[in-house]
Amino acid sequence: MNDITIIGTSQNNLKNIDITIPKHLITVFTGRSGSGKSSLVFRTIAAESEQLLNESYSSYIQFHLNQQPKPKVKEIKTFL
Description:
Order of helices and strands: EEHHE
Shape: globular
Distance between the termini: 10 Å
Largest sheet: 3 strands, antiparallel
């Protein structure tokens, strides 16, 4: 699959949003101030990718990392 599908994200300004983002392409998020662009990019997508990356480290390394809270989503499909 060549898409990242996020279902039911509810971070900050986002209220139960579903979105499909193509992989391997440059994607630009635009919109009005306060529309949830940063919440989607940094608090949902980046937090999930950091979580997946941190799971690949040894438990000793994981213990010393600062953990971000998991994003508030119902489901994220085909992230890897």
